[in-house]
Amino acid sequence: MVEYQLGEDKMLSEIYARGPIACTTAVTSAFEQYTGGVFNDTTGAKSLDHEVSIAGWGVTSGGV
């Protein structure tokens, strides 16, 4: 059985404990124009249409 958990803290805990996790995301037109750096979508899109693997986390030199 697969257990789904929501929230950034739970995601980070899972990555730390067991490695990469699978997540879904909505790919908006803003995301399609993404060229690098930290992406922060503000459209509020709810249509989850892509799956990604998250293997780690961190902070940029700018504190983001």
What does this protein look like?
The chain is an alpha+beta fold and about 60 residues long. The N and C termini lie far apart (about 35 Å). The chain is globular, with a radius of gyration of 13 Å. The protein has a domain at about 25-55. It is about 25% helix and about 15% strand. The protein has two helices and two strands. It has a two-stranded antiparallel ribbon. InterPro entries: Papain-like_cys_pep_sf (IPR038765), Peptidase_C1A_C (IPR000668). One of its GO terms (biological process) is proteolysis. This is Peptidase C1A papain C-terminal domain-containing protein.
Question: Which features would summarize this protein structure in a list?
Answer:
23% helix
In a nutshell, what does this entry contain?
This is Peptidase C1A papain C-terminal domain-containing protein. The protein is α+β, with helices and mostly antiparallel strands. It contains two helices and two strands.
Task: Give the secondary structure arrangement, pairings included.
Layout (H helix, E strand, L loop, with lengths): L7 H11 L2 E5 L3 H4 L17 E5 L10
Antiparallel strand pairs: 1-2
InterPro entries: Papain-like_cys_pep_sf, Peptidase_C1A_C
Organism: Amphimedon queenslandica (Sponge)
Protein name: Peptidase C1A papain C-terminal domain-containing protein
Q: Into which percentage range does the β-strand content fall?
A: 15-25%
Helix content: 10-25%
User: How many angstroms does the end-to-end distance come to?
Assistant: 35 Å
Global outline: globular
Mean pLDDT, to the nearest integer, reads 88
Radius of gyration: 13 Å
Q: Helix/strand/pairing class, anyone?
A: alpha+beta
What summary fits the major beta sheet? 2 strands, antiparallel
List the helices and strands in order: HEHE
Could you name the ranges where pLDDT drops below 50 across 5 or more consecutive residues?
Answer: none
Instruction: Tell me the total number of β-strands.
Output: 2
Q: Strands of the largest sheet, in order across it? A: 1-2
Total helix count? 2
